[in-house]
Amino acid sequence: MSLEVKKMAIIYIDHKAYEVTPGKNVLETCLTLGFNLPYFCWHPAMGSVGACRQCAIKLFKDEDDTRGRLVMSCMEMVKDNMYLSIDDPTAKAFRAQVIEWLMTNHPHDCAVCDEGGACHLQDMTVMTGHTYRRFNYPKRSYKNQYLGPFINHEMNRCIQCYRCVRFYKDYAGGKDLDVFAAHNHVYFGRAEDGILENEFSGNLAEICPTGVFTDRTLKAHYTRKWDMTTAPSICQHCSLGCNIIAGERYGELRQITSRFNGEVNGYFLCDRGRFGYEFVNSTNRVQQPLIRSKSSDATDKQSLYHYLKNILATDKIIGIASPRASLEANFALRKLVGKENFYQGIPEMEALLMRCILYILNTGHVHSSSLKEMESADVVLILGEDPTNAAPLMALAIRQAVRREPIQKGEMYIAHPTQTKLDELASNAAHLSPDEIARLGYAIANALNKNAPLPENLNANTLKLAKRIARILKKATKPLIISGTSLGSESIIKAAANVAFALSTDDKKASLSFIVPECNSMGLAMMKAPSLMHAKETIENGKANTIIVLENDLYRRSAKKEIDTLFNLCKEVIVLDHLHNETTGKASVLIPVATFAEAEGTMVNNEGRAQRFFQVFSPKNENFRESWRWLDEFRQFKDGINPEELKVPDDLMTEMVASMPQFKGAEAVTPDADFRMFGQKIPREPHRYSGRTAMLANINVSEPKPHEDSISALSFTMEGYKGMPPAPLIPFFWAPGWNSVQSINKYQEEVGGSLRGGDPGKRLFPKMPVLEKIFMNHIPPVFSPLPGEWQILSLPQIFGTEELSIYTPGVAERAPKPYIAINKKDAKSLNIIENESLQVQIQDQNYTLPVRIKKELPDGLAGIPYNIPGMCGIGWPAKGTLKKGKT
Amino acid sequence: MISLLRTIGLTFLHMFRKRETIQYPEEKVSLHPRWRGRIVLTRDPDMGERCVGCYLCAAACPVDCISLQATEDENGRRYPEFFRINFSRCIFCGYCEEACPTYAIQLIPDFEMAEYNRQDLVYEKEDLLIDSQGKYPGYNYYKVAGLDSGVKGKGEGHNEDPPIDVHSLLP
């Protein structure tokens, strides 16, 4: 959009003048103005096709025209001096007629349909006034398909709006959902039964205006939208920090839906984020504090405190923080153990990469790109990342950037050792070893700016490719560079930074985005603590004898042997976590904590955006307390602080910003706990919430007092302010007459734009240059494979790599089994064919893995799925030896 | 003076009228079939549970005294996993019956539910479910709904065409 103020257009709707932005279609303009105009096929993110004929209005030639003509408002652009009528009787009758036609075949299903109560078709039917089916002939029926563990199919309910295929095929690049047959027989589904392959299939449940595609995980514990206690939350399953709405009923987390944030995820979520929530309900949760030295393990809070009192007062303690714990929890640990005893719970290699990324983004010479900005990039360069697997929604954003190609320039170049799903859109996808990717990056930077270092001994092909990419990047107006930590290469990150530095000028900064490993990796890195390696040294040197591990399975971080030694040297291992894992198995004191759904906290995403998630519900189990609350309480044994004076997270954040100014702004991402709308709190429950006087009546007929939320402006009841809350505090989307997710329209300043009052979250990285622009020089030598030794690559997987989402049965089903990928030539030299097993020795671990041939892999490289169950505990970067198995 | 005597006379005459008061509980009160009393969950003609767990009764309830959880059997037929009515809160307004799309929940002419202990007024599904179709015999929701839940196959329901053959090119 140009910077100059756009001239506004005047349009007349039912003889009343409105000032509107030109260049938008009439439908979105009417919705922005607050009119209730029904529609089906149009979607703010996917645009108009004029297929459903539902948004008809009258358009008049001029002021004097009284006849006018019917037009589809989504296909009509706003022009100055336009005369329209929404209330015109012909237009109204036409819209009612369209719905009546649709309803001739719509089944009598609402009572057993999961969409009911959040259904766009229901809303639109009520809006047009259709009530009784006058058509007495039989209804059409279809057979359904099995579409995998995430999506349920009920084709009878279809109204042929084509939104599903437009999203799945055009927007998300899926291949296996299509429309079949003709005329009134059209069928939306797969060619045959099977799992929907696309990573964004879950969005079909929100895109479909009726109940053809619904959330299958919700079906297993079905709850209507109006019955859920919801809170604004942040996805925990990758570093992008997508905004979600999490819903609870009867003490169980039931559903995740997308919470619109114009700057971050927009309308969509990936399947890992949408369906990976079931760990909260897992039977594997730590239920009670455990003290393992005692005769009976399980204990209560009092005896736990009694036991910890001496340890915390006398022992020399170090704290291990976590990239999946909130800033509050990590800071509470830092306060408890002291700044000098506080360590990041990540391996040295990862800490190094994060330091490097932080330095680059803090120079102020590059712009840390939001997902929204990525969608409008014209040239994308991806160095050593596979966004579809490492940060899925970023891949969706990049897809939109490239998809604009026919109208505007959108080009993409990828360098990654293996094929990625985005390769199909790339102008060039180079499959290179990590070192070669870095060298390519350096060469591009050099071609853009001669001050950047040039790698020696570049081969002609790489040089040619580098020059070609440089030429295109130079012409780009909005270039975007993407890199990340997945390959564990410092050189690639620095090469990406060089390219961005070379492109940046004083007035226009190049966009750069790094994919980082976990949801709060960035926030933890910003705390600037030493890595796990240093923690181990401290323990080995006898400078400390007790360790507190916060929400971190250290066996996923480093080789098993190293962690075993670390724990064996400790007198006490105090672990706070919500799920049992190998680390909690070693704990001498184990403390259960709350998950994201039961706690409040702040996280920093890969872009440097601080975002807050709110507690969704108070768990039945009183032991599930927030980590920061436990840790803050432990300070009474150390500093003699009275637990009564403990701080709420707002105060924790203020304190944190005071001691670590790099977080300035993070304390103010949401209104504080005292915030009220006209003296009222914001209810987490919709006004139709049911069963309040019966849901606990089986335990005691006298209802308990509802739980009070003293730490946020939200309340756990349905009482409170009924209007529109401020953007960071929206617990659910609802507007009168709009029960479905389409009510988001009412919460936006302009339909499809940002939320009223600005999108939530605050970017922490500086806008202005603060450091000198110095090109980095960390050029690796030419990669040449050593005979008998393979460089092992970590290949992130959308399903499987992430620690928590794997507890959802559907995600576990979709996760790959362990394998090792090598190229054809290497397979031949090992005398092995696909699916035969290979003896793999990585460090001192032996694995027997089936071989997968990936012909694009460079020689001497072998890829294994990163951190999937059964393949954790490898120290990266890794080398390994491969031998053919016995059988 | 006259009016006073007239009143006494009228009152005296009432002694010979038919009594409105009945000797409850020895004598039972006769109630109309649509009298709104105790709430029951009925069964369809095939003796399957009529309730499909749609939550509409719970949403309609002005005192929020109904709570349930829907679940599914292996055929995909929905039924309530639990269904609880707190009769100590119920005002017998009948909105739940009105909201019910399957005629499952019905108010019957019975009010004899008094308890000494309030906790005993919490009725679970076992207490509510009866082996009868109640006031609306013959109705089976799954026969008119589109989906296949083991009651009838796709296209075998009331006023429904057989499933479409997607591979057919015929008009």
What does this structure look like?
The complex is a heterodimer of chains A (887) and B (171). Chain A folds into five domains: 9-100, Ubiquitin-like (UB roll) (Roll), CATH 3.10.20.740; 105-281, no CATH class; 282-346 and 517-663, 3-Layer(aba) Sandwich (Rossmann fold), CATH 3.40.50; 370-515, Dimethylsulfoxide Reductase, domain 2 (3-Layer(aba) Sandwich), CATH 3.40.228; 790-884, Beta Barrel (Barwin-like endoglucanases), CATH 2.40.40. In chain A, 26% of the residues lie in helices and 18% in strands. A six-stranded mixed β-sheet of chain A has the order 14-25-24-23-15-16, sandwiched between helices. In chain A, strands 17-22-21-18-19-20 form a six-stranded parallel β-sheet, sandwiched between helices. In chain A, strands 32-34-33-36-31-35 form a six-stranded mixed β-sheet. In chain A, strand 8 and strand 9 (187-189) form a beta hairpin. The longest helix of chain A is centred in the N-terminal third of the chain and has 17 residues, at 89-105. The model of chain A has no long low-confidence stretch (mean pLDDT 91). Chain B is of the alpha+beta class. Chain B is built from five helices and six strands. The radius of gyration of chain B is 24 Å and the shape is elongated. The relative contact order of chain B is 0.19. Strand 6 (139-141) of chain A pairs parallel with strand 6 (160-163) of chain B.
